[in-house]
Amino acid sequence: MLSLSVNIPKPPSLSSTFLPSPPPPPPPTVFPIPVLSRRPIAALIFPPSPGQNPPERKQLYQPFRPPPSPVPSKYRSLDTNSRLEILTNRLGPWFEYAPLIPSLIQEGFAPSTLEEIAGISGAEQNLLVVASQVRESLLNPGIDAETLSFFDSGGGAELLYEIRILTADQRAAAADFLVKNRSDAKQSQRLARAMKDFRLRRADRGWARFDPESPGDCLAFSYFRQAMEYEAASKEELRRLSLQKALEFAVSDTAKALLEEEKSRTKSEEKESNVDDHEVTVPLVRMQLGEVAESSAVVVLPVAVEAEEVEAAPWNCIGVGEFGIVEAEKEWRRWVVLPEWKPISGLHRGGVAVRFENGRILPWKESEKNRRDPILVVADRRRKEVVSDNSFYLGFEGGNGSSNAELKVVRGGTLKENGVKESLGMVVLVVRAPMEEDNGQLSDENWE
User: Fold this and answer.
1) Range of the domain at 379
2) What positions does the domain Rubisco accumulation factor 1 C-terminal occupy (predicted)?
């Protein structure tokens, strides 16, 4: 009997010499966590030596302090409806319920909403709030209670609102003036403008005769300037009334003396007092912002920028009709409106304003700052003949009028030396361009 045996091969093991076993993976890197030692923090305090004061410790942390509430203390505990009721019925003095307006606006009420509820227009709301702030600023200069009580009644808010443009010290002086003269809101507005404008008028005639610290003198000076404008416009009756008003408010003796002299002098006497009608003193003034709008009379002149345009500019610029519409005999591109100052009063025929980029064409010495400012030179073309050595004329430095010569303001004596007998016109006024009113701006410490 036969037997069969089958040998089944064994699979190779991993440890076979033919397939080497892979190396074991490297152990993971372990970073030890440092153990923080809980050591107590110690500080050494050295007591001060005898007789030595310990150093002051500065408090670096300042707790929050909310701004002071604008609402008077007796109204702070009231709710919104109660405040609206006080404002609607005008309960109490105006300066007490006026601070309720900004507090209600902070709560979300629009000015139009307050107008519907309380019946106070937006303009009146602004007036009351500003006037109450002005009244509050008067407490700092220590104004007396009698003067302050004058503004507590009806109409006081309108008076205080007008002097808001003044400094704190000026407000106190203005308030005292308003009380003594029992002024109304219109007079208060004029006083505030006169006090603010006074220091900007140093170049005006008679300025040094008035006291800048006196509200009465400042107001009198504004009426004096108005009188000069009326005189230039040949309105003698209005001139006399303005001088009379100026005398009512003038305080200093020098101002009163000047006004008395002007009041006793008539325009015809002034003309007779001119010794030499050919010799003209040229005023140099700086325009102020808004000055034309405040002038009672103006002059309209054509403007030239080239020498050829001086003669070609229109001659007749006279206002006609009920509205004083200015008509010229020809079309012209450039015009300027100036207050009717005395040197150019009546210069409706033959007048021309020549614009120069700077003041270097003037024959006198000036500061470098002023020489850089643009200017307008107003000339009377009816007076071309070079008569006076001390007068000034529009002419050429070389005197020949060639294209290479520069148009300038030249003394009559210089033109005569160069053999020039006729100019482009006699200079009657030099005007500087308006500038920002730096001198009139209130500094931070003056705002209240």
Assistant:
1) 298-432
2) 282-434
Q: Which of the two residues, 47 and 285, has the higher pLDDT score?
A: 285
Q: Which residue has the higher pLDDT, 26 or 446?
A: 26
Distances (CA, A) of 1 to 4, 61, 160, 408: 10, 114, 144, 153
Are the C-beta atoms of residues 76 and 69 closer than 8 Å to each other?
A: yes
Structural domain includes residue 365: yes
Tell whether 304 and 420 lie within a shared domain.
yes
Name all contacts of 360-369 with Cβ < 8 Å and 24+ positions apart.
Answer: 361/406, 361/407, 361/408, 361/409, 362/408, 362/409, 362/430, 363/392, 363/408, 363/409, 363/410, 363/411, 363/414
Q: Do 222 and 329 belong to one domain?
A: no
Tell me if 42 is assigned to some domain: no
Residue 152 confidence (pLDDT): 86
- pLDDT, greater one: 25 or 391: 391
> From its phi and psi, is residue 206 left (phi > 0), alpha (psi between -120 and 50) or beta?
left
Q: Tokens for 325, please give them.
A: 């519409």
Kindly state whether residue 32 falls inside one of the protein's structural domains.
Answer: no
Query: Which range among 260-264, 359-363, 417-421 shows the weakest confidence by mean pLDDT?
Result: 359-363
**DSSP letter at 60?**
-
CA-closest candidate to residue 216, choices 194, 245, 249: 249
Cα–Cα distance between 100 and 105 in angstroms, integer?
9
Q: Which amino acid is at 435?
A: M
Q: What is the share, in percent, of the chain residues with pLDDT greater than 90?
A: 22
For residue 184, give both structure tokens.
């109304």
Q: Is residue 399 left, alpha or beta, with left meaning phi > 0 and alpha meaning psi from -120 to 50?
A: left
Residue 250 maps to a domain: yes
Higher pLDDT: 194 or 349? It is: 194
DSSP string, 122-167: HHHHHHHHHHHHHHHHHTTTT--HHHHHTTSSTTHHHHHHHGGGS-
Do 311 and 242 belong together in one domain?
A: no
Are 146 and 84 within one domain?
yes
Residues 419 and 307 in one domain: yes
In the beta sheet, which residues pair with residue 422? 385
Residue 73: pLDDT band with limits 50, 70, 90: confident
